[in-house]
Amino acid sequence: MKFPPWVDDPKEGDEKRAKARLTYIMNRTAVEILPAPSIRALSRTCGLDHSTLFWNLRRGRLSEAVAQKIVDACGTSADGKVRFTIEDLLNPLAIKSK
User: Fold this and answer.
1) pLDDT of res. 24
2) What is the pTM of this model?
């Protein structure tokens, strides 16, 4: 996955970079799958309360249950290509930036 420079700024700390990466992944996913993209709509699609997803993103890390629901609902595109795995969501700093 390729992250824009504002998401992957090496001068920022790990916590801030993890938060930016997760937010970028979720926003990009919402744009790809929803007609009116928003984190609120994405949380509904994943079967989550919107505040749960907001607070997980704000913390910069997802719980395993939240990550599993997101992967189940949005992890694969319509053509069968994997967007992200549960490991990507649990540890966003481990994703190799292309």
Assistant:
1) 94
2) 0.89
